[in-house]
Specification:
With 353 residues, this protein is α/β, with parallel strands linked by helices. It contains 13 helices and 15 strands. Helix 2 links the parallel strand 2 and strand 3.
């Protein structure tokens, strides 16, 4: 019996799409052998190790997403220019991916570049979308009606949407199945990781989960007793402060699980990671992102979560927010069964091929 082939398409915007799709596919490969062709602009080294041996990586994009001036700000003008070019190239993108999908694929999983669903329908391949928002809704909110209309029509061609929590309106999809929060499972190494970091029981570890090119957004508060800060690999370190450390030897998810507080933006990938690890979150709002309102409404109901102003983070005046958060009850871990439910859907469709 031939090993099923899945074409995996990821949106250009952010890493949450990659994290979410990978979590589902990791569950799937535990149940059946598959071959994956991943069409994505993200670096291959972000793909989980256990998936790399069964994955072909094609470094290209099928959509635009939005352009950003930094980690938390939409560049409206640049986004408009990029969408104008994308709309002009759309027929060629669909034709290219239709040709690819006619080469023996059994299923398309898209998170969620619009053209792939049009291409899958043209190639006669079943498609499943995995998303908490759709680009037609985003573009309509931002005032890009032509891009919204085009995206909406292509989404209507999808076979099924697996709708993850928290979700924005996604009425363009004809068939939908609601899921919970889809995220990856924490490694379960908190005590070991904290020991490697030299973090004692009374010490609070604060992990900065912003991109390195957003370093200008953040200034650390004055040193506080029993508080240390961790920067992920690639961040410019602060060599003059003993309480600030750039950690490049440990995996980001291990650092997040070991942290007492994570500082970052409310993107879907980070929300899922902190929820799965039951870690406190101090987050910076993202003005101009339509999904921000949806994600913040969900965060408002979560224990151990606070918003910090951009001004406070930029000037180092966020120690009060941090101390208040550390003094609050921590969150409970969430149910992770939505990942299994999503993998079940893919398994059932492939088993019937």
């Amino acid at each position: 019996m031939a090993v099923p082939r899945i074409a995996v398409y990821l949106s250009r915007h952010g890493y949450g799409h990659l994290v979410r799709a990978a979590a589902v596919l990791e569950r799937l490969v535990e149940r059946m052998p598959v071959r994956l062709t991943v069409v994505a602009p993200q670096p291959r080294d972000l793909w989980p190790l256990r998936l790399r041996s069964v994955s072909e990586w094609i470094a290209t994009s099928c959509d635009v997403g939005v352009e950003q001036s930094d980690d938390v700000t939409v560049d409206i003008a640049a986004t408009g220019d990029a969408l104008e070019r994308w709309l002009a190239r759309l027929p060629d993108i669909v034709a290219r991916e239709t040709l690819r999908l006619r080469r023996g694929f059994d299923l398309v999983l898209g998170d969620v570049p619009p053209p792939v669903f049009e291409a899958a329908a043209a190639a006669g391949v079943e498609s499943v979308a995995l998303a908490n928002f759709s680009w037609d809704w985003i573009y309509r909110q931002l005032g890009f009606e032509a891009a919204a209309v085009a995206s909406e029509a292509m989404y209507a061609r999808a076979g099924l949407l697996l709708e993850t929590t928290p979700s924005a309106p996604m009425d363009a999809f004809v068939r939908r199945q609601a899921l919970g929060l889809v995220t990856r499972k924490p490694p379960g190494l908190r005590d070991r990781t904290r020991a490697l970091l030299g973090a004692g029981d009374r010490e609070s570890v604060v992990l900065v989960a912003l991109r390195a090119d957003s370093a200008s957004l953040l200034r650390f508060p004055a040193p506080m007793r029993h508080v240390r800060y961790l920067l992920p690999s690639g961040w410019p370190g602060d060599g003059e402060r003993a309480d600030v450390r750039c950690e490049s030897t440990l995996d980001f998810l291990e650092l997040l699980e070991a942290a007492d507080v994570v500082v970052g933006k409310p993107g879907y990938g980070l929300i899922g990671d902190v929820a799965a690890s039951a870690t406190r979150l101090l987050y910076l709002s993202r003005p101009g992102f339509p999904e921000n309102e949806v994600l913040e409404a969900w965060l408002a109901q979560r224990a151990g979560t606070r918003r910090v102003s951009r001004e406070a983070l930029h000037c180092g005046g966020w120690s009060q927010d941090l101390c208040a958060l550390l003094g609050e009850p921590g969150p409970s871990a969430v149910d992770l069964s939505a990942v299994d439910h999503a993998a079940d859907v893919l398994f059932d469709r492939l088993a019937s091929c």
